[in-house]
Amino acid sequence: MKNGRNETDDNVICVNDLPLSERPRERLREYGAEKLSSAELLALLINTGTKGESVITLAQKILVKFGSLSMIMDASLEDLKNFKGLGEVKASKLMASFGITKKIIKELRENENTIRENKKKYNAVTNPEELYKILISKVSNFTKEHFYVISLDSRNNFIGLDEISVGTLTASLVHPRETFESAIKRHAAHIIIAHNHPSGETDPSEDDLKITKRLVEAGKIMGIDVLDHLIFTNHSYMSFKEGSLI
């Protein structure tokens, strides 16, 4: 064995045979994958060239033959393994790598579609009645208090709804840090806060008023406006905004 190869493979040019400054793996480590050329990325997957031909040259020839990475990704296993210098093992590695890429693209598209559908469904959810319909569908146990943050963009379009806590609503439980954490992660411009009253009454308590005031002030500091606070039960709701309490 020599450098991990059989003696009979001495004429096969590997990645490690290239000058250090031209080795894709070293360039990947130093600059990141996005800085590598398509040929260099292919070379890393293929790993070895052919007798008298470097792996970079082989990668370049594959690109010329198929036209682009996307065309290689759509090629069949038969097309790849019949290309001179690839064979079944290397062709299978390329198929597996591009198969992973296709799955990632599919997942991203599905996520984008879900976000698009949510935005369409919850578009401009500043209407308390519409928001109430969304909230009651989220609560499974009305005997406990559930505190929610609804994140909105600068046009008041829905970004996301997050349950922050379950239990008795107190100043220590509903802290600005936890309240705004999801909004910050979602890059929200505004939020609406909401919680249910297990008692069935929608009138705000003294704690509700204090907590709302505290969160409104914290939002001003962070540049995220608290547009409303909804108190709801399984039968009705009240809006701080509609009641001129915010």
Protein model, in words:
- With 246 residues, this protein is an alpha+beta fold.
- α9 links the parallel β5 and β6.
- The chain starts with 11 loop residues before the first strand and ends in a 7-residue tail after the last strand.
- The protein folds into two domains: 113 residues, DNA polymerase, domain 1 (Orthogonal Bundle); 112 residues, Cytidine Deaminase, domain 2 (3-Layer(aba) Sandwich), CATH 3.40.140.
- α2 packs across α3.
- The relative contact order is 0.08.
- The chain has nine helices and seven strands.
Descriptive labels:
single chain, 246 residues, alpha+beta, DNA polymerase, domain 1, Cytidine Deaminase, domain 2, 2 domains, 5-stranded mixed sheet, two-stranded antiparallel ribbon, 9 helices, 7 strands, 17% strand, elongated, disordered N terminus
Q: What structural category characterises the helix and strand content? A: alpha+beta
Q: Any low-confidence stretches, pLDDT <50, length ≥5?
A: 1-8
Mean pLDDT: 83
**If you consult CATH, what is the topology of the largest domain?**
DNA polymerase, domain 1
Shape: elongated
Residues in helices, as a percent range: 40-55%
Number of helices: 9
Distance between the termini: 77 Å
Counting copies of identical and different chains, the oligomeric state is single chain
The appropriate CATH architecture of the largest domain is Orthogonal Bundle
Strand content: 15-25%
Q: What is the N-to-C order of secondary-structure elements (H for helix, E for strand)? A: EHHEHHHHHEEHEHEE
CATH class division of the largest domain: Mainly Alpha
Radius of gyration computed on alpha carbons: 29 Å
How many extended strands?
Answer: 7
CATH homologous superfamily placement of the largest domain: 5' to 3' exonuclease, C-terminal subdomain
Instruction: Tally the structural domains.
Output: 2
